[in-house]
TrEMBL record:
Domain of life: Bacteria
PANTHER family linked: PHOSPHONATES-BINDING PERIPLASMIC PROTEIN
Residues making up the signal peptide according to the UniProt record: 1-16
Protein name, as recorded: Phosphonate ABC transporter substrate-binding protein
């Protein structure tokens, strides 16, 4: 299974990023905090941006971004004393190009998107991350399916989400590889985006590889006894807050401090939107770049150039 390389993808989406972003202006400096050192007044925030351009991966368009993260923006800019301006995305991969070309300063990113961004912008830094209460990949089959173990899926049709999705592509692919599957030879993977559930219900595919929330929603809609978890994977990496290398170190340190000190208030602001239920019972945690090495390994096996 081979895919287009990231560098090629970047060139394709650049023009789109230029269109959808409402940012693009240069950051300017402001003065908001002073200290005295050796009798001289020092402005600790002299190099801070006056306005921070903020994006969220997996959110398409300004209206959805405003609806789901408006309360978060309000509280974070009050705590930081800096205006946060939304940068709307039209695709999960565009954020990488946006940061590479200095169109966005801060991103709440999915794990897969972070790996792509870090590859294109080596100085990008994960400051902290949101750890979801339930965030792992599962394989779902019909209750009366003949498949009883993951190994039984050899020769089967498996629906996944779109290329690059953490829980709906990279996660299930990684699990299959770890269990000895050759993805080109042993299974027929169909990247169906949001149509994977309907494909399973109609019998077009034998199984779905996606996040546990997809299974929970199927049970919620169809009741118990209709669908079965064939396999559950380990927890996936957390969703990081990713800072552009152009942001000052003092700004990044303050943003990190605020995330932890006001964790409950910030998470409650995110959960003000019904669409952010995935963050129920979530917490803000420390993170490092090495936490995403498994994602990089899977990308490499899938033939996706970073």
């Amino acid at each position: 299974m081979k895919f287009f390389g990231w560098k090629f993808l970047s060139s394709v989406v650049l023009s789109a990023a230029l269109l959808v972003g409402c940012g693009g202006q240069e950051t300017t400096k402001t003065q908001t905090s002073n200290t005295t050192v050796a009798g001289e007044t020092v402005d600790e925030r002299a190099d801070w941006p006056k306005k921070v351009r903020f994006a969220v991966t997996g959110i398409d368009g300004m209206e959805e971004l405003q609806r789901n993260y408006g309360a978060f923006r309000d509280i974070i800019q009050d705590l930081m004393g800096v205006e946060f301006e939304f940068f709307a995305l039209s695709d999960r991969t565009i954020v990488t190009t946006a940061m590479e070309y200095d169109q966005v300063d801060m991103v709440l990113s999915g794990p897969s998107e972070y790996v792509l961004t870090k590859s294109a912008v080596p100085g990008a830094e994960p400051l902290a991350a949101i750890e979801r209460d339930q965030y792992h990949t599962v394989f779902i089959v019909a209750e009366d399916s003949k498949y009883q173990t993951l190994e039984d899926l050899k020769g089967a049709k498996i629906a996944m989400k779109e290329a690059g999705s953490t829980s709906g592509h990279i996660g299930p692919s990684s699990i299959l590889i770890d269990h000895g599957f050759n993805l080109d030879r042993d299974v027929n993977i169909l990247l169906l985006g949001g149509a994977s559930v309907e494909a399973l219900k109609s019998g077009e595919v034998d199984a779905i590889g996606d996040g546990i929330r997809v299974y929970n929603k199927m049970v919620e809609e169809d009741g118990e006894g209709k669908w079965r978890l064939l396999h559950e994977g380990p927890p996936l990496p957390q969703d990081p807050f990713v800072a552009s290398p152009k942001l000052p170190e003092s700004f990044k340190a303050e943003f990190r401090r605020i995330l932890f000190e006001y964790e409950e208030d910030i998470l409650n602001a995110i959960l003000a939107s019904e669409d952010n239920k995935k963050y129920n019972k979530a917490s803000i945690v420390e993170i490092s770049d090495a936490d995403y090495d498994l994602m990089r390994k899977t990308y490499s096996i899938l033939g996706i150039d970073l």
